[in-house]
């Protein structure tokens, strides 16, 4: 994919970029490796001061950054603003907590014949972050804030359609006071990732993106014996049981599906509703989906903007056509509005059967699949049928059911009576083909550390 800003609301190419030459790429890797040797010796107080000033800059520049994000990938402006605000909060969170999360962990010294024994967290070195466009600030910051606070240095290979956001982030950390090599954007295509991964100066990688990209990065890193964290796709269940607060379940369900124009890994994608409340849920859900305003993401009244790329919109169209062609019913939407840009109508489909692609694959757009089930066993079986396992929702006030969902849903997180969201305070990640490793919380910052055992006799 060419490295370019193409406004998805109009299809217009606004700016193109040349990928880094081999020489320039090499210089950046050299700078990262050299910088690590001094940066790792800085203390938490110094790193926290730089991180706090990065957060302050981001807050001060929120409007400008939000407009850039919306221009590059099409999410409604209000959503871009809140993404920027969330990033600043996460930066402050790690500035405040990194030292505590990475404190030495004392062990039972006498039991191992030592005078002192403990485990110490130490940074690994330059970490490559391969990131997607859908939350072009947040996906980067949730890696970078903990990684830099831990004393690592970051190399960002951002998605090719958000180059200006990538360059903004590169500058942000430098302007905040971090030495130049602590965080660098590499404007490269996905074809150049392998060479960077195999470079001995790069010690680990994190990838947020699709399953094929994750497989590729993990297998290359595996062959180099380098640590990886993978945050991949999802096709999460949103289960509604008879005891649920239906008003809340319906309105939250619509938000959970169409957030970010339907392009969120943790979006609710498959709505699995108990037959006692199915009809009521379906009527209200479809009415709200139909009422959403699709339009220019810069317009404050827009609920759903365009999909980020033409390819993404084509994929959604094909997935719905496949289902409809095999007998699924489209309850609303199901078409591209007649206007420039890569818009797709909020869509609800039902009567889905296992041979349809949408039954098992992730649909990355504002399309909800609606299923009716007779009991909790059927709900769980259907929820767990996909290869993904990222963040499931369950709506029930019955405590026995809540426990069963918490225990039996195959997912990295289960949210009961609320929408799956990421918080700096909670671990985030998946199981099955949704990936491995965790971001955020104390667990996230420890992923790219050497947990060194120290035994003193
Ligand atoms: P994508 O095509 O995998 O792109 C993500 C990043 O990987 C981009 O920087 C891309 O670069 C790069 N890339 C693509 N193929 C690669 C390869 N073979 N080797 C190395 N790098 C490669 O993903 P997307 O379609 O843009 O994003 C949507 C996917 O990301 C969905 O599946 C979504 O669920 C998932 N996602 C997961 C999470 C999570 O936290 N679990 C969060 C957000 C999104 P180019 O742009 O240059 O191709």
Distance between the termini: 57 Å
Instruction: Kindly report the CATH topology of the largest domain.
Output: Aldehyde Dehydrogenase, Chain A, domain 1
Q: Calculate Rg over CA atoms.
A: 23 Å
- The beta-strand count equals 18
The percent range for strand residues is 15-25%
Uncertain runs with pLDDT below 50, 5 residues or more? none
Number of domains: 2
Principal-axis shape equals: globular
Q: Give the names of the bound compounds.
A: NADP nicotinamide-adenine-dinucleotide phosphate
What is the CATH architecture descriptor of the largest domain?
3-Layer(aba) Sandwich
- Biggest sheet features: 7 strands, mixed
Number of helices: 15
CATH structural class of the largest domain: Alpha Beta
Mean pLDDT: 98
Structural class: alpha/beta
Helix content: 40-55%
Question: What can you see in these coordinates?
Answer:
The structure is a single chain. This protein is α/β, with parallel strands linked by helices and about 450 residues long. The chain has two domains: about 5-230 and about 430-455, Aldehyde Dehydrogenase, Chain A, domain 1 (3-Layer(aba) Sandwich); about 235-415, Aldehyde Dehydrogenase, Chain A, domain 2, CATH 3.40.309. About 40% of the residues lie in helices and about 20% in strands. The chain has 15 helices and 18 strands. Strands 12-13-14-11-10-15-16 form a seven-stranded mixed β-sheet, sandwiched between helices. A six-stranded mixed β-sheet has the order 7-6-5-8-9-17, with helices on both faces. Strands 3-4-18 form a three-stranded antiparallel β-sheet, with no helix packed on it. α8 (about 210-225) links the parallel β8 (about 205-210) and β9. The longest helix is centred in the first third of the chain and has 25 residues, at about 75-100. The protein is globular, with a radius of gyration of 23 Å. The N and C termini lie far apart (about 55 Å). The structure holds NADP nicotinamide-adenine-dinucleotide phosphate.
């Amino acid at each position: 994919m060419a490295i370019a800003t193409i406004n998805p609301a109009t299809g217009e190419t606004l700016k193109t970029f040349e990928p880094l030459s081999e020489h320039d790429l090499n210089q950046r890797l050299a700078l990262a490796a050299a910088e690590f040797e001094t940066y790792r010796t800085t203390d938490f107080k110094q790193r926290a001061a730089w991180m706090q000033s990065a957060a302050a800059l981001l807050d001060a520049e929120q409007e400008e950054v939000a407009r850039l994000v919306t221009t590059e990938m099409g999410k409604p402006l209000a959503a871009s603003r809140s993404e920027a605000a969330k990033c600043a909060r996460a930066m402050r969170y790690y500035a405040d907590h990194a030292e505590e999360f990475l404190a030495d962990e004392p062990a039972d010294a006498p039991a191992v014949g030592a005078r002192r024994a403990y485990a110490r967290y130490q940074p690994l070195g330059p970490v490559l972050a391969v990131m997607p466009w859908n939350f072009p600030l947040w996906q980067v910051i949730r890696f970078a804030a903990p990684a830099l606070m831990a004393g690592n240095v970051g190399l960002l290979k951002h998605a090719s359609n958000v180059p200006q956001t990538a360059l903004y982030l590169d500058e942000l950390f430098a302007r905040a006071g971090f030495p130049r090599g602590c965080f660098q954007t590499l404007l490269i295509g996905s074809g150049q990732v392998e060479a960077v991964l195999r470079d001995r100066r790069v010690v680990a990688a994190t990838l947020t993106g699709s399953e094929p990209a994750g497989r590729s990065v993990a297998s290359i890193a595996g062959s180099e014996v380098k640590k990886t964290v993978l945050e991949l796709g999802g096709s999460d269940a949103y289960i509604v049981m008879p005891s649920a607060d239906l008003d809340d379940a319906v309105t939250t369900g619509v938000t959970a599906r169409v957030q970010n124009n339907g392009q969120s890994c943790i979006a609710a994608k498959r709505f699995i509703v108990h037959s006692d409340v199915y009809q009521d849920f379906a009527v209200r859900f479809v009415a709200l989906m139909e009422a959403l305003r699709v339009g220019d993401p810069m317009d404050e009244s827009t609920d759903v903007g365009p999909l980020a790329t033409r390819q993404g919109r084509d994929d959604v169209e094909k997935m719905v056509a496949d289902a409809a062609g095999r007998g699924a019913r489209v309850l609303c939407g199901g078409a591209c509005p007649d206007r420039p840009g890569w818009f797709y109508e909020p869509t609800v489909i039902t009567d889905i059967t296992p041979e349809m692609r949408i039954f098992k694959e992730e649909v990355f757009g504002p399309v909800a699949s609606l299923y009716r089930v007779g009991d909790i066993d059927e709900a769980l079986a259907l929820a767990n049928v996909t290869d993904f396992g990222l963040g499931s929702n369950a709506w029930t006030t019955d405590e026995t059911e809540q426990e069963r969902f918490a225990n039996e849903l195959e997912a990295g997180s289960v949210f009961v009576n609320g929408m799956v969201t990421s918080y700096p305070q909670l671990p985030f990640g998946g199981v099955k083909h949704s990936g491995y490793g965790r971001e955020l919380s104390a667990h996230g910052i420890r992923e790219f550390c050497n947990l060194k055992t120290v035994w003193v006799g």
